[in-house]
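Re: your question from the hallway

Yes, I did run it. Sequences:
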Amino acid sequence: MNKNRYRPVIGLGILIIFIQLFTSFTGKESYLTQLTMSAYYSLVILALCILLGYAGQISIGHAAFFAIGGYTSAVLTTFNLLPYKSEPFVEFLQSIGFTSTRINPYGVEVLYISPVISLIIAIIITFIIALLIGIPILKLKGHYLAMATLGFGTIVYRILLGGAVFGEADGISDVPAFNIFGIFKVSGDNSERVENYYIAWVIVVLFMVILINLINSRVGRALRSLHGNETAANSMGVNPVKYKLFVFILSAIFASIGGFFITHFNGSIGPSEASVVKSVRYVAIVAVGGMANIWGALIMGFILNYLSLRGYFGSYDEAVFGIILVLIMLFAPEGIFKIKNLDYIKDLIKRKFQKVNL
Amino acid sequence: MSYEHLLQYILSGITTGSIYAITGIGFNIIYNTTGIINFAQGEFLMLGGMSAITFSNYFPLPIAIILAVIITAIVGGILDLLIIRNLKKQSILLMIIVTIGLSIIIQETALHIWDEKVRSLRHFTGDETSSINIFGAYIAPQVLWVLGITAVIVILLGLFFKYTVTGRSMRACSSNTVAARLCGINAKNMVTLSFMLSAAIGALAGAVVSPITQTQYDCGTSLAIKGFAVAILGGLGNSTGAVVGGLIIGILEAFSISVLPLAYKDAVAIAILLFILFVKPSGLFGRSEISALKEF
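Structure:
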């Protein structure tokens, strides 16, 4: 019973290796770039799936957390500390090994905060923001919660778009690569494509294992009971405030980690990552996957993000996700992995037919 | 701050505030008959503004605006007939997701029909440079149009809901759908009608405000959030409340420009929205006992 839970994870692992080998043998390794990016986007989608599907709390501002993770690291790792080298604080950072140096494309030496440290800082900042926003926001329900999260997302987007520190409409580029223990390197270099592909998917697998454990634990059951009926759950001793806040923060941190990695992988980040359409896209993907279904979310997140990144949707990129959202809600509110959807269409045709006969 | 400055800020606040008020009223109309918050409300304004601009190239201004209103109302009606009516289970979460999806679709369709350029309808009277002096503050004649049309809309809506059979039927549906249906009211048609009415009012507002704020394919979202803030501030479902809420948010926003950079203007209205939601979600004129009983 317990082992069955992880069987799909092994399947996923085999699939990941198979895809890599397939692209290498067919000489289409350039596809790995988009495959890596969709892996990182999947992290936000998994994060939202837990919040929306399991805990039943809608968030139309999750792109904001994704952007917070990316921007925090981008700001910290592109800020040149060299002019402040003799300041005691900077000296202290250097002495404990929190900084690195590199030469930027303009030939200037840059002393910057190491990405490992900026990752930790990004997580801490996301934690604080999610905590401060979560406490009041999660008291709200339905429309109010949706609007409040939409409002939060818009504020973050506006701040990123208007703030000089965040590079305004251009975003931040020239973000350095992220060296993991000096062995692996998260960067967009073509020579490191295969390595990065595996780094990204190992992270996804890791997250999946965490989530599978979470869903099948006491916390997961508590969350599902909250989704079903908050009052009933409360009377059974589940503290709704505590659990909702926990899952909100966890979900925000997951999204933020996704944003962190994609920023270092791409070497840049722009304000569009925080836009409302991006948040809506994530909701759409979770909805297609069947809401409370992390495997569905992962599969659809992977497929749709990949198609979108490859540019298959052309200039209809955003519209496609809107259409998906509406169609799914109309014909398959349970997600496309529930087969009885077809019955509904049959039923609809039959009904129309009967009307004609009358 | 001098007296003239103060007056200038207040007047500009009242102008934007009245636009938010109309948007808020649009939310209220649909909410009152269906209990849905239509996240695509802002798109009706955008659609109204955009189509009025296009029609104004071929027709005189009043006809262009009437055509824009009719087209947007039809779009609103189609949304309900085609999608909202056919939803199998009408849970709140589902409604939110569907209307958000619709708003994205309308936005992207507008992007493909028109383009990403910022446009504006020509001023109803005078042009960009003409201004009227009111007690030392200068305003564009268009501002008076905005205020006048807001007032007319609010009054007509009030009369419509109070004295006409259709208006009364719509109110009946909002207080108790089952009872309304037992009285022979076609509740489904009332929903369609409320979507059309709300779209028409949105379109009119979008056309009237276009000379001042300009119209772009994605201007709907921020208007929708502000309209929602206004509707909440005034108490969801309360049209008079929406007008008061609109003026409050409009004036606060106008004054915020004197303190904060322009880029953060939108953030102010949203911060107010979040604040109201946290402190008093029932709004200024709503009773918290009532809102506690409503299902969200």
